[in-house]
């Protein structure tokens, strides 16, 4: 018997082959104007005993599981003692467990003390997925991210200093056609000082449930760049990015027109060559009907 999930259930593409345990429902912030993932859910920290029963069921069905992703969108919002109890249960129940991961908002990262994060890391919470979205403060305000470039950078450094790996995501297109350069320039500035392990890009895709809200909050008319415009943003990002340490770059999320993967800066030339092929129509793009958040 496997866990009975409360749908919809989301996870990063890289977690597709790993065990998913639903520690919370929804997102405690849930106000980013571009995101419809958890709008149908009220945030809830699931009772510890219920999650432990799910872990027992999952271990019975998949005793050899080595990696676990804690859903929904905000497991790091849990009190540290609650989260530690879940991590201890996972280690005790899954003998081959090597790593636990979860989504983390910048604000929840900043709320955790260094001692708390180090304790969580010692109990195998080793990878956090953080939505950076943009490094431009004006864009972050327009999308009601609830964070600034400064607070995002501080959160990323805090996680890194506590020994955690961090996978950051940036959303192409958030500046629209008017503020594309501002969006990418600010993002480059932030990423140049952010100690990420992995970086992923998504393309902005507005669900019908949030499209009107997004446009209303943006503060001015918004026009999404076309696929070529979004690929040009990605080329600018990859071409100019100078990360403080090598990182794995991916654009394998279902929203992307062109899947890419490589290590930056070492494979920069290859990634840019692939983008150039796509920009000149020599590589087919993912059809729009196959994309989504």
Write up what this structure looks like.
With 293 residues, the protein is of the alpha/beta class. It has a single domain, classed as TIM Barrel (Alpha-Beta Barrel). Helices cover 38% and strands 17% of the residues. It has ten helices and ten strands. It has helices at residues 48-61, 80-93, 106-111, 114-122, 137-142, 149-161, 180-191, 208-218, 227-240, 268-279; strands spanning 19-22, 24-25, 44-45, 67-71, 99-103, 125-133, 165-172, 198-203, 247-250, 261-264. It has an eight-stranded mixed beta sheet. α7 packs parallel to α9 (227-240) and α9 runs antiparallel to α10 (268-279). It is globular, with a radius of gyration of 19 Å.
Sum this structure up briefly.
With 293 residues, the chain is α/β, with parallel strands linked by helices. It contains 10 helices and 10 strands.
The helix count comes to 10
Q: How many individual β-strands?
A: 10
Query: Mean pLDDT, as a whole number?
Result: 95
Using the coordinates shown, work out and report the CATH topology: TIM Barrel
Count of individual domains: 1
* Percentage of residues assigned to helices: 25-40%
Protein structure class: alpha/beta
Tell me the strand order in the biggest sheet: 1-4-5-6-7-8-9-10
What is the radius of gyration computed over CA atoms, rounded to a whole number of angstroms?
Answer: 19 Å
User: What ranges have pLDDT less than 50 throughout 5 or more consecutive residues?
Assistant: none
Major sheet details: 8 strands, mixed
Give the name of the CATH architecture: Alpha-Beta Barrel
The CATH homologous superfamily? Aldolase class I
Categorize the overall geometry.
globular
Q: CATH class, anyone?
A: Alpha Beta
């Amino acid at each position: 018997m496997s866990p009975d999930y409360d749908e919809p259930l989301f996870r990063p593409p890289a977690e597709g082959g790993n065990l998913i345990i639903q520690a919370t429902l929804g997102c405690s912030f849930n106000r980013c104007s571009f995101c419809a993932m958890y709008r149908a859910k009220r945030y809830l920290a699931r009772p510890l005993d219920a999650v432990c029963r799910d872990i027992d069921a999952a271990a019975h069905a998949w005793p050899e599981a080595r990696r676990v992703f804690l859903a929904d969108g905000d497991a790091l919002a849990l009190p540290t003692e609650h989260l530690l109890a879940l991590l201890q249960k996972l280690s005790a129940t899954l003998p081959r467990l090597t790593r636990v991961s979860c989504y983390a908002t910048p604000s929840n990262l900043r709320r955790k003390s260094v001692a708390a994060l180090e304790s969580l890391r010692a109990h195998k919470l080793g990878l956090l997925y953080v939505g950076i979205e943009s490094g431009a403060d004006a864009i972050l305000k327009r999308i009601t991210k609830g964070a600034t470039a400064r607070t995002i950078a501080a959160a990323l450094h805090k996680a890194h200093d506590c020994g955690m790996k961090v996978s950051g995501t940036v959303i192409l297109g958030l500046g629209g056609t008017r503020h594309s350069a501002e969006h990418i320039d600010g993002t480059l500035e932030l990423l140049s000082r952010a100690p990420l392990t992995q970086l992923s890009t998504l393309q902005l895709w507005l669900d019908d449930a949030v499209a009107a809200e997004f446009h209303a909050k943006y503060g001015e008319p918004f026009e999404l760049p076309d696929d070529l415009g979004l690929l040009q943003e990605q080329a600018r990002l990859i071409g100019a990015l100078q990360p403080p340490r090598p990182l794995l770059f991916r654009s394998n999320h279902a929203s992307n027109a062109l899947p890419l993967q490589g290590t930056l800066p070492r494979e920069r030339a290859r990634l840019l060559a692939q983008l150039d092929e796509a920009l000149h129509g020599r590589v087919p793009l993912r059809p729009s009907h196959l994309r989504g958040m």
